[in-house]
């Protein structure tokens, strides 16, 4: 597994990097046979250290965790425990579905745009042009997943929404976290 360990305005020593590689490698190795890479970023927020970790699995799924504590090692250990818990749940769900994915998840590239938010002071005036202002353009990967895998991926990533291609009919679908805590699923397939 490839590791990218960095600090935002914090010097990361060799001892911490070795601790991260050993601990995270052991936690991920218990549940994922083929992790590809891990990114760990340390930062400081007030008096606390913050650790954010993201692990990409060969199946195409991504797990992320965030922890904070007054000591940098404790912040990482908290993050590592959360990652361990997420991967344990992921492994249990895979066993519950009685389905092993022999091949990595297929992805498709799609353009993604960030649009400028309209200001509240502009509401008094009717805009001349209804086209939004594009702030940024980037590429996004859209995975081909089952609905259950999409929900699992959304929860592992801690994301509020996930766009995916439904592997049953190849249509674009969306799963999202509702305000009541449940998960919504949008399937605009034409019958």
Task: Give structural attributes.
Double Stranded RNA Binding Domain; Ribosom_S30AE_C; RHF-like; cytoplasm; 9 strands; alpha+beta; five-stranded mixed β-sheet; translation regulation; SHC Adaptor Protein; single chain; four-stranded mixed β-sheet; 191 residues; ribosomal small subunit binding; 3 helices; 2 domains
Strand neighbour order, sheet with most strands: 5-6-7-8-9
CATH superfamily of the largest domain: Ribosome hibernation promotion factor-like
CATH topology (level 3) name of the largest domain: Double Stranded RNA Binding Domain
Strand count, sense and closure of the main sheet?
A: 5 strands, mixed
Number of domains: 2
Number of helical stretches of at least 4 residues: 3
- Termini separation comes to 44 Å
CATH architectural name of the largest domain: 2-Layer Sandwich
SSE run: EHEEEHEEHEEE
Low-confidence stretches: none
Question: How does the overall form come out from the CA principal axes?
Answer: globular
GO biological process, one term: negative regulation of translational elongation
Keywords: Cytoplasm, Translation regulation
Protein name: Ribosome hibernation promoting factor
Subcellular location: Cytoplasm
What does this structure look like?
With 191 residues, the protein is an alpha+beta fold. The longest helix is centred in the middle third of the chain and has 25 residues, at 72-96. Helices cover 28% and strands 38% of the residues. The chain folds into two domains: 2-96, Double Stranded RNA Binding Domain (2-Layer Sandwich), CATH 3.30.160.100; 107-186, SHC Adaptor Protein. α1 (14-31) runs parallel beside α2 (72-96). It has three helices and nine strands, in the order βαβββαββαβββ. It has helices spanning 14-31, 72-96, 147-157; strands spanning 2-7, 35-45, 48-57, 62-69, 107-115, 134-145, 161-166, 172-177, 183-186. One of its GO terms (cellular component) is cytosolic small ribosomal subunit. Belongs to the HPF/YfiA ribosome-associated protein family. Long HPF subfamily.
């Amino acid at each position: 597994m490839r590791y990218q360990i960095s600090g935002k305005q914090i010097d990361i020593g060799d001892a911490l990097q070795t601790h991260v590689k050993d601990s995270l490698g052991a936690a991920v190795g218990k549940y994922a046979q083929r992790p590809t890479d891990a990114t760990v970023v340390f930062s400081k927020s007030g008096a606390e250290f913050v650790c954010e970790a993201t692990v990409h699995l060969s199946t195409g799924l991504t797990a992320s965790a965030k922890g904070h504590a007054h000591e940098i090692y404790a912040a990482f250990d908290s993050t590592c425990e959360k990652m361990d818990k997420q991967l344990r749940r992921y492994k249990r769900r895979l066993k519950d579905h009685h389905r092993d994915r022999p091949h990595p998840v297929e992805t498709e590239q799609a353009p993604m745009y960030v649009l400028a938010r309209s200001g509240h002071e502009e509401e008094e005036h009717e805009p001349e042009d209804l086209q939004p202002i594009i702030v940024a353009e980037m590429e996004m990967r859209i995975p081909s997943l089952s609905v259950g895998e999409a929900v699992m991926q959304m929860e592992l990533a801690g994301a509020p929404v996930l766009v995916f291609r439904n592997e049953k009919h190849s249509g674009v679908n969306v799963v999202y976290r509702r305000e009541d805590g449940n998960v919504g699923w949008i399937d605009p397939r034409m019958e």
